[in-house]
Amino acid sequence: MNLGLSQGRAGGEGTVDHMGIQVDAPETVMVQLQRVKAAGVAVREEMGVNCCHANQDKFWVQDPDGVEWEVYHLNYDLEGEATVSASRPNGLPVVEETGCCAPRPSGT
After folding, report:
1. In Å, what is the CA distance from 47 to each residue of 11, 50, 64, 85, 108?
2. Domain segments of the chain as ranges
3. Burial annotation 11-30 (CB, 10 A radius, 16+ → b, else e)
């Protein structure tokens, strides 16, 4: 497992944009997705999306401070392909594209 930190939220210097937890298998993404859904946590799913130069299975949750967390698996690299940030909301606020792998709720 890898833990990633993306700095630079619009809130200013020293803020966190989002956190990422990279897991070793797509099955782990699905196990964790079912776990957070069973707990009643709002989730945004993005399966098979192209983001950050790779195809990924991922989902997002938001902590009480408003920081978004993604749990993801890198399926394969996208060598030479354009990077696309896909967002298919499922329970969380609609997002606007703000750069690869860094969605924020609209209006923020």
Report:
1. 29, 9, 24, 12, 25
2. 2-105
3. eeeeebbbebbbbeebebbe
Report d(CA 67, CA 23) in Å as an integer: 19
pTM: 0.66
- Using CA atoms, how far apart are residues 27 and 97, in angstroms rounded to an integer? 27
Strand ranges, E, within 15-106:
16-22, 44-51, 54-62, 68-77, 95-96, 104-105
What mean pLDDT do residues 87-102 have? 44
pLDDT at position 84: 46
- Cβ-based neighbours of 52, under 8 Å, separated by 6 or more: 83, 100, 101
Q: Which tokens is 9 given?
A: 């939220």
**8 A C-beta contact, residue 62 and residue 14:** no
Residue 37, pLDDT above cutoff 90: yes
The architecture that CATH gives domain 2-105 is Roll (3.10)
